[in-house]
Amino acid sequence: MTSTSLNVWTADPAQTLRVGDGFRLADVDTRATPGYGHGKHRGSADLARGADVLDGLQERLHASSREDPEAPAVLLVLQAMDTAGKGGIVRHVIGATDPQGIMLHAFKKPTDEELAHDFLWRVEKQTPRAGFIGVFDRSHYEDVLIGRVRQLAPADEIERRYGAINDFEARLTDTGVHLVKVMLHISPDEQKARLGERLDRPDKHWKYNPGDIDERMLWPAYMDAYQTVFERTSTVAAPWFVVPADRKWYARLAVQELLLDALERIDPHWPRAMFDVAAEKIRLAAS
Amino acid sequence: MTSTSLNVWTADPAQTLRVGDGFRLADVDTRATPGYGHGKHRGSADLARGADVLDGLQERLHASSREDPEAPAVLLVLQAMDTAGKGGIVRHVIGATDPQGIMLHAFKKPTDEELAHDFLWRVEKQTPRAGFIGVFDRSHYEDVLIGRVRQLAPADEIERRYGAINDFEARLTDTGVHLVKVMLHISPDEQKARLGERLDRPDKHWKYNPGDIDERMLWPAYMDAYQTVFERTSTVAAPWFVVPADRKWYARLAVQELLLDALERIDPHWPRAMFDVAAEKIRLAAS
Question: What is the complex's ipTM, to 2 decimals?
Answer without folding.
Answer: 0.93
